[in-house]
Every structure is written in C-alpha cells, then in structure tokens.
UniProtKB/TrEMBL annotation:
Annotated organism of origin: Roseibium aggregatum
Superkingdom per UniProt: Bacteria
Entry keyword set: Signal
Name used for this protein in its record: YHS domain-containing protein
Signal peptide bounds: 1-25
Amino acid sequence: MFANLIRSSIAAAVVVTGLVSSAFGAGVDVNATVTGLALRGVDPVSYFTEGAPQDGNFAITAVHNGATYRFTSEENKALFNQNPEKYLPQYGGFCAFGTAMGVKVDGDPDLWKIVDGKLYLNLSQSIQERWNTDVSGFIEKADVNWTDIKDANPDDLNP
C-alpha cells in the first residue's frame, strides 16, 4: 500500500511538472496568464463555430507556441490542432487597437470581432468602439507594428 502511494505521488508529480513547464513556456508573443493559459480559458474555435466565445473545459486542452488553450469539445480541439493559425487571435491575443498604437496590452476574449476570417480582440468596450471606427485602417497599422513588437516584452513597450 505504501509503495502504491509513492508510485501514484511520483506519477502525479511528473504530470504536474509537465503541465507547469509547458504552461510557463508561453513566449512574449502570446498574451497568456502567468500559468500559460491563453484567451483566459475561452475556446478559440468557438468564435468560429458558435459565433461567440465559450469557456473551454479544463480537461480538454492543447499547447501551442507554449500557451495552453482550452476547448469545449474534443471536436473543437481536433479542428484547432489541424489548423491553429485559422483559430488563433491575431497579434498573439493582445489588443488589436493597442497593437495598432505600437503597444502590447491585454485583449479581452469577450471583446472580439472576426474580420476576413481572422479573430481580433480588444482591451475594453471604449477601445473596441474606437477600433470599430476604422477597422481596416487599424488592422493595417497593427500588421505593420506587429512585425516590430511581436518579440518584445510588453513591459518594454508600454509607457
């Protein structure tokens, strides 16, 4: 019995270590929590399949670019794994308007828009309203800025 307890404790430690090490692997180009969770746990595929963000299940996950994504179903996870770029938010999930301004600030998964098949997030309702006044112009600016700021630490960019 004691041997089984030790084996199961070691197995649990190995699993936790693997999860933690992959979670902390999210780079500066992905907007993730300190634990490596992207989109605050929202299923990225749900924007496209459900037309709205849906909270993912903590037991259905995939790691991409060092960040952990949650999904509402195994089907959504499979769709994501087949083509992650189709479902990932632009600019690593940072605020699209902020990226247009040359900074990296949090993107709120509940403040979103799909434009030409791409998912964009914004920081706040007021920022999203401003972004909506010239979506194509801000996307153009953000696309240019992203190439310069993608690999920069957000703290080095923000005032």
